[in-house]
Write a structure and sequence with these properties.
The structure is a homodimer of 384-residue chains. The first copy, chain A, has helices spanning 2-24, 29-36, 40-52, 117-134, 173-181, 190-201, 261-264, 266-273, 282-290, 294-318, 328-332, 336-347, 350-354, 367-380, and strands spanning 27-28, 56-63, 69-75, 81-88, 91-98, 103-110, 142-149, 152-154, 159-163, 168-171, 185-189, 210-215, 219-225, 228-229, 322-326, 357-360. Chain A has 384 residues and is α/β, with parallel strands linked by helices. Chain A has three domains: 2-75, Winged helix-like DNA-binding domain superfamily/Winged helix DNA-binding domain (Arc Repressor Mutant, subunit A); 81-194 and 367-380, 2-Layer Sandwich (Nucleotidyltransferase, domain 5); 207-361, Nucleotidyltransferase, domain 5 (2-Layer Sandwich), CATH 3.30.420. Chain A has a five-stranded mixed sheet, with helices on both faces. A five-stranded mixed sheet of chain A has the order 14-13-12-15-16, sandwiched between helices. A three-stranded antiparallel sheet of chain A has the order 1-3-2. In chain A, strand 12 and strand 13 form a beta hairpin. In chain A, helix 2 packs across helix 3 (40-52) and helix 10 (294-318) packs across helix 12 (336-347). Chains A and B meet through helix 1, helix 10 and helix 13 of A and helix 1, helix 10 and helix 13 of B.
Chain lengths: 384, 384
Amino acid sequence: MEKQDQLLMKKQNKNLVLDMIKGRGPISRTEIAKNTGMSPTSISRIVNELHVQGFVRETELVTSGVGRKAVLVDVEKDVLFTIGIEIDKSNIKIAIVNYIGDIVVLKEIHRDHSENYEETLSKIAVNVQNMIEQNGILNEKIIGMAVGLPGYIDYKNGVVKLSDQLFWKEKTLAEDLKRITTFDVIVDNELKMKIISEYFLGRAKDVKNAVLVGVGTGIGSAIILNGEIYRGESNNAGEIGHTVIDPTGNVCNCGKIGCLATYISEGAILADSRKVKDLDSIDDVYEAFRLKEQWAINLLDRTTTYISLAISNILCLYNPEVIILSGNLFEKLPEIKEVIEKKFEIYTWEPVRETVKLVYSQLNTQGVVLGGAIQAQNTLLDLD
Amino acid sequence: MEKQDQLLMKKQNKNLVLDMIKGRGPISRTEIAKNTGMSPTSISRIVNELHVQGFVRETELVTSGVGRKAVLVDVEKDVLFTIGIEIDKSNIKIAIVNYIGDIVVLKEIHRDHSENYEETLSKIAVNVQNMIEQNGILNEKIIGMAVGLPGYIDYKNGVVKLSDQLFWKEKTLAEDLKRITTFDVIVDNELKMKIISEYFLGRAKDVKNAVLVGVGTGIGSAIILNGEIYRGESNNAGEIGHTVIDPTGNVCNCGKIGCLATYISEGAILADSRKVKDLDSIDDVYEAFRLKEQWAINLLDRTTTYISLAISNILCLYNPEVIILSGNLFEKLPEIKEVIEKKFEIYTWEPVRETVKLVYSQLNTQGVVLGGAIQAQNTLLDLD
């Protein structure tokens, strides 16, 4: 055990050094030693190992404080790649992402509503292979892929338990996709991947506890606590869409009465709009709001009230440092932000309001593929 | 750093061994080695150290599998003590608790509603000193005390930011109580201490994620995630009482409209009852309910609906393994449990309902003092 502890410690130290180079490189060995508290000898040994494995490279010489020349080290951004994939009702996004989180190539593919599971999977496999070849990336440098989608996901086993939007139920997605692509695959709810991207590259950097609320075809949230996704017992933590806000309200497709989602999701708003006017899509509702049609103002007034309540309530329960709002609504109707911020002031308890920063997603439409790729890297990379 | 790592590792190993003896003692050194994976030599060294420090003692000889006699070791329950204190509007509880979490002595003292901060503190100090002397406990064996109370607490600094029930605001409780008792003091919200007691001794043992919902003079919740209290940014995580459930509803003393607490707290129920009938206390409301007076049935019907909604919503957001219900309501009106459980079925989303166990507090009225004492032990004990 104590022997094993020492091996584990060595691994942790190696990870610590690599993280430091990744986060602060180019950086000198001396600087790394200073910041980690490890001895210069240990740092030299670890950096050499990382160099041999291809993770770091030496960069320029700089003059250090005492007049000697120091070589800086930085991460080798192309040492490995992961693939992030987002599957939506009418759209598939695929991104190849390098070790430092840059998107090397991003492709968007149309998806037919009627397209079945197998068709979607083989479409993904073909496109991934093409993208890899067209960009001259070696297959062995790709350590895995991640798929983000709306729905209730068994993260551990890579199974889609239920996705209303895709009409998928009990699909062994990770297994099936691995079979046809050979890559290791992780699967997660899209919002969990989105918050990962904000945590590593966006609005939740250097934050301990953050909540991301997504408003679009549905409403949901994802939570990072102490730097890790909080999942709960069955990966459903954050399912604010099925909190009940009116026990005498609308019927939800989950079989309950008064779920928040029945007032806020695009489908619900559109269905209610059609009681007033014949419309094609949610965009028409937003257009009517811009044209100051009273029914649209009323409807979006109710919507923003419920969104603000949702934000307020999630804040009371999680008391996070940052809350990130994200989703179609804010992209398509940015003027709604001001309204929500005002109602947020009205409905949120002061002690949790005072300590939170309310921000909007920075990675937006790239959040899921980027977060997925980062998550795949974090999960699948095992430093020897 | 690597040197420090090794010291830290030694400390962790020592804690691990002590925890094992505490949890499974009487136990043989061989058994400890087997369970921890550490070498028999390390175990012998650590157990000897613990013995010298007074934490463990040798118990009987038993015949081990191969016919040899083995000495078992167990923790020394009186090696140290902590003091758990609960301050309520009309009541102070003080318990001296030993190392294994047994209450050695428990005292309940009346507290006048008009009693001010200083009076309460000196009353505590006098009683604590008397209890220590009367039970022949050495002052140096007491490693600290913990105070649990209703309100918004700055846990880090031991400050009561606001307690509506006690009429305290910005009180430096830890500091003040240390000055007059000389003991180190930690301060926390009572529900956080209650869940600690359930986690170590009650309904949430061996559980990773648990939520405790307290219903009484107020409504609130406390959360344990991965074995630790989750506090959020300002120690307000779990403040379900100030989630808004009806944006056109009751005015709350926090200045907002429609907070859950305005429908569920004893004060709110009593105030609403008095619109119908002249009553002395909340007990009269429960009595009327038992006598099947229609107004009381109506009022408690609304109350149980909102309690169930609160439970449902907290489950959707935290998706815990266990939810513990606790508080006066369940103790004084146990027949209400069945009603709440039925409504819980109606209002809770299936995926989070299926994976949760709904239970009732086991430690009840002793939960706060016990949890406080355990928390003080965990926080203040520093093994050399």
